[in-house]
């Protein structure tokens, strides 16, 4: 997913961890993008849940 974010002029930063969840922040062109919430929920979060069954959620900041 990160190469796709970079291709669109954006990126994602890990802010910290909260239990089995990760606090993240979108930066660059992703800030204010109408698709940002969908990218987080159905792109990045889904891939993490598929790869790491213990993972619970992304928490956007």
What descriptors fit this protein?
GMP Synthetase, Chain A, domain 3, 61 residues, single chain, alpha+beta, 3-stranded mixed β-sheet
Describe the structure in your own words.
This protein is of the alpha+beta class and 61 residues long. The chain has a single domain, classed as Fe-S cluster assembly (FSCA) (GMP Synthetase, Chain A, domain 3, 2-Layer Sandwich). It contains 2 helices and 3 strands; from the N terminus they run αββαβ. It has a 3-stranded mixed sheet with strand order 1-2-3. The mean pLDDT is 93.
Summarize, please:
The chain has 61 residues and is α+β, with helices and mostly antiparallel strands.
SSE order and pairing:
Elements lengths: L1 H6 L2 E9 L2 E8 L7 H16 L5 E4 L1
Parallel strand pairs: 2-3
Antiparallel strand pairs: 1-2
What share of the residues does DSSP label as strand, in percent?
25-35%
Roughly how many Å apart are the termini? 19 Å
**What strand line-up does the widest sheet have?**
1-2-3
Helicity, as a percent range: 25-40%
| Number of helices in the DSSP assignment | 2
Per CATH, the class reads Alpha Beta
Largest sheet: 3 strands, mixed
From the coordinates shown, what is the CATH architecture?
2-Layer Sandwich
Overall structural domain count: 1
**Helix and strand element order:** HEEHE
Global structural class: alpha+beta
Mind telling me the CATH superfamily name?
Answer: Fe-S cluster assembly (FSCA)
CATH domain fold name? GMP Synthetase, Chain A, domain 3
């Amino acid at each position: 997913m990160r190469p796709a974010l970079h291709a669109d002029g954006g990126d994602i930063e890990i802010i910290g961890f909260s239990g089995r969840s990760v606090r993240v922040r979108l930066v660059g062109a992703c800030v204010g993008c109408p698709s940002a919430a969908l990218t987080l929920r159905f792109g990045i979060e889904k891939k993490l849940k598929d790869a790491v069954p213990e993972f619970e959620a992304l928490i956007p900041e």
